[in-house]
Design goal:
There is one protein chain. With about 170 residues, this protein is of the alpha+beta class. The chain has one domain (about 10-165). Helix content is about 25%, strand content about 25%. The strands form four sheets. The protein has a four-stranded mixed beta sheet. The longest helix is centred in the last third of the chain and has 22 residues, at about 125-150. The mean pLDDT is about 85.
Length: about 170
């Protein structure tokens, strides 16, 4: 989805988005329940959750940390260090497909498309370039997906630059 601004080569070299600090497990990708059920047959453990009567799953990473250091990182269970993500396209979480974008909800109920400030590759791009991409239809696609899958909406964090706002509710 973001190939207009991020090259596959720069993402493949970095893979920052494919590891998760213990203190930021809220960023772990969320999977629809049907995908969770399919992937669990391969031995992957998921923490099942519910939001607005919709079930979903989050990879269980706790066993992959070796220390209690909140800065320690654990790699995504579906990351092959040599070849990248091993998931089929239909199983890849929407969170991953839109990284470094997030749909978030502000305290006032406003929904926004925000940019994750920690992506090293995207920080090299002008913010205006990302705004244009989001406003040219990608933001609407993300918002529509969130309407069908409200579990992907994260709580807004002030350190995330807002690229687009929505007055409508999910």
């Amino acid at each position: 989805m973001l190939s207009k601004v991020l090259s596959k080569e720069s993402c493949a070299k970095c893979r920052f988005c494919c590891s998760f600090r213990r203190q930021s497990l809220w960023e772990t990708p969320l999977f629809p329940i049907d995908v969770v059920q399919r992937l669990e047959t391969g031995g992957i453990s998921f923490q099942r959750e519910q939001k607005e009567n919709v079930g979903y799953g989050r990879m269980e990473l706790e066993g992959n940390y070796k220390t209690n250091d909140p800065q320690e990182e654990a790699a995504c269970l579906f990351l092959n260090p040599k070849t990248g993500c091993v998931l089929k396209e239909e199983d890849k979480p929407f969170d991953c497909k839109i990284w470094p974008l997030r749909i978030m909800k502000k305290k006032d109920g406003t929904f926004v498309i925000a940019l994750t400030p920690t992506c090293p590759s995207i920080n090299e791009k002008p913010l205006e370039e990302m705004k244009v991409l989001v406003e040219s239809g990608l933001g609407e696609q993300i918002f529509q997906y969130a309407k069908e899958n409200p579990f992907i909406v994260k709580e807004y964090r002030t350190d995330f630059p807002v690229l687009m706002e929505f007055d409508q509710s999910l």
